[in-house]
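Troubleshooting: if your tokenizer reports a length mismatch, compare against these two reference records.
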Amino acid sequence: MSEIDLETARKVAHLARIAVPQENLPALAQELSQILTFMEELNEVDVEGVEPMTSVTPMRLKRRKDGVTDGDIQARILSNAPDAREGFFAVPKVVE
């Protein structure tokens, strides 16, 4: 892979909406080049027959009881609404 030039680094920073000062562009270009080189190395690895995994160690996700913990506060919630009627938020009609 060819080296990332300063103009390409500037374009990448712009697309990522990152403000990079002119004096930091050479370092960014070098870092982007290193990332692309590493990705090329990864593409050379033979992964035929390797099952996808989510973690390098087998572990079970922690579980918690799925229960309502903050119920029965309808009046408090609706007190924040600019307009509430019959226990619901009232909003202007937008479709005829």
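Reference record two:
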Amino acid sequence: MMHIFSSITSTQNSNLDEGAFVPKGIDKACPRATWPATGKKRASVPITEEQVRGIFHRYDTNRDGLLSKQELKNAFSSLGSRMPGLRAWLALQHADVNGDGYINEAEFDKLVKYTMKRGYKFN
């Protein structure tokens, strides 16, 4: 029986790391295709205040001029937050001055400044 990867030469398989993890039940001698490392790094660009404003306006899905916790969560998720639910809750704690559970136009600047301090970047 011919092995399906028999066309891969041993030199192609030699670029597999010597200590690479191979799951249980898989033959360690089986040739593996690996992605070539490009060595290129992506540049991170700090997000501007204008971009933050645009993102929050875009996530006001019902267009009522108020940002709910769910809308904030979606916006922070698009910004790349690791825990957008927690970030939305903290943003409400920081910027919701009247305590109604929404960010209105009067509180919007405080929300934007809070977000800018978090240092989000575009990759």
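Descriptive notes for reference record two:
- The first helix runs from residue 10 to 13.
- The two ends are 47 Å apart (CA to CA).
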